Amino acid sequence: MAIEVKIPTILRTYTAGAKSVEAKGDTVAALIDDLDGNHPGLKGRLLTDGGELHRFVNVYVNDEDVRFTGSLDTKLTDGDVVTVLPAVAGG
Amino acid sequence: MTRYDSLLEAFGDTPLVGLPRLSPRWDGEYPVRLWAKLEDRNPTGSIKDRAALAMVRAAEADGRLTPGCTILEPTSGNTGISLAMVAKLRGYGLVCVMPENTSIERRQLLEMFGARIISSPAAGGSNQAVATAKQLAQQYPDWVMLYQYGNKANAQAHYEGTGPELLRDLPTITHFVAGLGTTGTLMGTGRYLREKVPDVEIIAAEPRYGELVYGLRNIDEGFVPELYDDSVLTSRFSVTSYDALRRTRELTEQEGMFAGVSTGAILHAALSVADRLASKDPADPSGRADIAFIVADGGWKYLSTGAYSGSLQQAAERLEGQLWA
């Protein structure tokens, strides 16, 4: 199962500069584990030591924030697009 | 009564207008209807007039603002323009810290109202504007920073104004959709509606900017407004410039409403929810929805960005690196 993951500029040091990479997993948690296998260290930037999403990291599945769809347990299906973005100020 | 003693009295109470063409199902027993709250009808043409006025009044009431004071605020535009008008009428100076990648119209309006603009680097986006303003606040302790991201009067303005107005005009409301910036609109309106309407859904639309705006050096430089409480929301969408522009144009073409680009992002989130509900069986009562969304401002201030001319792809490319919400 291939899922496209869009990586923000500040985390591309982990993906050799790639803007987007492919990963596998039927949940966001599994996807992050798979990502970390191919891009070691990435998981540590996305999750806290307690295994929660970092406060300043937002993860979207098809543009919807996973914090409101089950967080790391959010289900993924083939063809989904996952976008990782840092939290920034608006207004 | 539509007569007021001053412009400062003539804000809020904005019209709520239906979208019979863009709504997935306007008629029938269980309609899925969209309603636009026209916040561009406020004195300086944006929803930020509510927060600006409320923050100034609160600071006057607690004695922080006294005649002749200078107000300091980090803003990407609309809050600055609202504050500039209020400051002029109430006799204050205003210093705005604004990212340099905001539209020329915003700068011209601020200058016309007599505000002083301090530019922060484009590469830092609003984050950098906030950081710069905090430094200035330390350097100039007599300046009063109202700080829209953490000022409870911002959310309270919507708890007392936007929320009750919506419920009065749309007692059957099931969803509320607004932009997520300072989070004041969603927190205030969302809390009010949650208290009054069982199972109401509160949906956030946030702009997804081009790469330039995310020029942070590391994740720890991220920013979450102090006002933000995610337990008020039920879902949150990130909307690209392309989708925001597409919906902004649809709103004009199909419903005659000329709105700013952030409204397109809000409409995109509203339609995502509406289309999901409309895909249910039309005889299923759980498909009924009255979805109110915010028109944050009109399109006038964005004409120079090219958002309204040429192909969508061209317009989206032109917006790359601009702060449009």
Question: Any overview of this molecule?
Answer:
The complex is a heterodimer of chains A (91) and B (325). Chain A has one domain: Roll (Ubiquitin-like (UB roll)), CATH 3.10.20. Chain A is 18% helix and 23% strand. Chain A contains two helices and five strands. In chain A, strands 2-1-5-3-4 form a five-stranded mixed beta sheet, covered by helices on one side. The longest helix of chain A is centred in the middle third of the chain and has 11 residues, at 28-38. Chain A is globular and about 25 Å long. Chain A starts with a strand and ends in a 5-residue tail after the last strand. Chain B has 325 residues and is of the alpha/beta class. The mean pLDDT of chain B is 93. Classes of the chains: A alpha+beta (91), B alpha/beta (325). Chains A and B meet through strand 3, strand 4 and strand 5 of A and helix 4, strand 8 and strand 9 of B.
* Cα-to-Cα separation, first versus last residue of chain A: 38 Å
Overall average residue pLDDT of chain A? 94
CATH architecture assignment name of the largest domain in chain B? 3-Layer(aba) Sandwich
Helix content of chain A: 10-25%
Order of helices and strands of chain A: EEHHEEE
Termini gap of chain B: 33 Å
Spatial strand order of the main sheet of chain A? 2-1-5-3-4
Q: Rg of chain A to the nearest angstrom?
A: 12 Å
Strand order within the widest beta sheet of chain B: 1-2-10-7-8-9
Please report the two chains with the greatest interface, counting residues with C-beta closer than 8 angstroms to the partner's C-beta.
Answer: A-B, 25 and 45 residues
| Morphology of chain B | globular
**How big is the Rg of chain B?**
19 Å
The percentage of residues in β strands of chain A lies in 15-25%
- Low-confidence runs of chain B: none
CATH superfamily of chain A: Beta-grasp domain
Quick one: biggest sheet of chain B? 6 strands, mixed
What is the number of independent domains of chain B?
2
Helix content of chain B: 25-40%
